[in-house]
Amino acid sequence: MRDIPGTWRRVAAGAGLIGPDGSAAPTIFAEMSDLAARTGAVNLGQGFPDEDGPAEVLEAARAAIAKGVNQYPPGRGIPSLRTAISEHQQRFYSLTVDPDCDVVVTAGATEAIAASLLALIDGPDDEVVVFEPYYDSYAACVALAGARLVAVPLRWPDFQPDLDALRAAVTDRTRVILVNDPHNPTGAVFSSEVRAEVVRLAERHDAVIVEDEVYEHLVFDEPHVPLATVPGAWERTLSISSAGKTFSVTGWKIGWVSGPAALVDAVLAVKQFLTYANGAPFQPAVATGLALPDAFFASIAASLRHKRDVLGAGLQSAGFAVSHPQGSYFTVVDAAALGATDAADFCRTLPERAGVVAIPLTAFVTPAHKSEYATLVRFAACKRIEVIDEAARRLQSLR
Ligand code: PMP
Ligand code: GLN
User: Fold this and answer.
1) For 74-130, how does the pLDDT look when each residue is reduced to its tens digit (9 = 90+)?
2) Fewer CB within 10 Å of terminal CB in the chain, N or C?
3) Atom 2, ligand 2: which residue's CA is nearest?
4) In 198-349, beta strands by DSSP E
5) How far is the CA of 110 from the centre of ligand 1 (A)?
6) Contact criterion met (CB below 8 Å) for 315 and 322
């Protein structure tokens, strides 16, 4: 493999996944889920729920398959799903989105991110500003698109960016400011000052904002505020979300992008040659989900908030210093007090020491910055409460 020329090397290197022998390693999520399966450890690594989502959503997918909704859907997505996405944006954010031209359905948020970056990047001098640590596909996709990644650090324990560092990162070379809020892996929700500054900087330097909002309904304090709602932002913002987290169907891979028609058309121009179309029977099911009453959306946030609290208490009593996530599936701890000096080594030995799998934060940063995150570890709270209790019980053995 290491002798094969091609873009794969740049992509794997972008994600920090070139092994010592020059071959590409699997992502940390795959490695850690595999480790959990092999050792029987409780898997609080990869962020996926261990319970099914709403019965009516699952039933709608079964019904669609039974009715023969099994061939290519329209590349832009079926009309009823695009309408449901438009109504969702209006209901929760008062954003007016034309279902015919301001939306495209994608193969998960992952394809939406890839297609957006490929669509917007024009050459090797273009820069993409991201907050670091960042979701792992960001650096890989920036590399795939042939651009340069410019990282603005988020620091323990509140993980809000320094506004001066943000101002210094955005220049006329910035093509895209890629924001993830609520944030994976830190659980941060960005302040209104950060949102305002992102939009101001994008306007000043004529950059496009791409916001990954897959955890939009998993917030614990205030309702989510999309960047697209900040005055001046809409015409330069692509908003990305996904059914995976909201409806606990991460394997369905139904995502979407919304924004002004010209930007969405650019994304569609690329998407149609990545997957052309995707997920025919899941699309009407996600439309059903997006139309569920407000009580459903409130209940998933309340349930995850409770799980965050139980997980946080367990981690604290095991001896970790624990951050206070305001959203997302995740809680970050500092494992220094438990002797960690290398988060990846700590996570690789955690199944043996305590029967639990977690993810090192160093998996979400560029190799040159790993030392700044060397003792930080991410645990997922999106599991049944008895699973979190069991993990917490096992972790007490670390003391
Ligand atoms: N962005 C973030 C921040 C995520 O955590 C995930 C989770 N997998 C994704 C994108 C990908 O979403 P999807 O499964 O819809 O592709
Ligand atoms: N988003 C999930 C996480 O951060 C899963 C990622 C993946 O498997 N690619 O854990």
Assistant:
1) 999 999 999 999 999 999 999 999 999 999 999 999 999 999 999 999 999 999 999
2) C
3) 47
4) 208-212, 237-242, 254-258, 321-322, 330-334
5) 6
6) yes
Rounded Cα–Cα distance for residues 375 and 210 (Å): 30
CB of 278 closer than 6 angstroms to any ligand 1 atom: no
Instruction: Single out the residue of 235, 268, 218 nearest to residue 96, CA to CA.
Output: 235
Is the Cβ–Cβ distance between 351 and 395 less than 8 Å? no
d(CA 278, CA 252): 10
User: How close is the Cα of 358 to the center of ligand 2, in Å?
Assistant: 12
pTM passes above 0.70: yes
From atom 3 of ligand 2, which residue's Cα is the shortest distance away? Answer: 47
135 lines ligand 1 (CB under 6 A): yes
Q: Which residue has the least CA distance to atom 4 on ligand 2? A: 47
Report how far Cα 191 is from the mean position of its chain's Cα atoms: 18
Give the DSSP H or E segment for 344.
Answer: helix 343-354
Q: How remote is the CA of residue 254 from the centroid of ligand 1, in Å?
A: 10
Position 149, amino acid = L
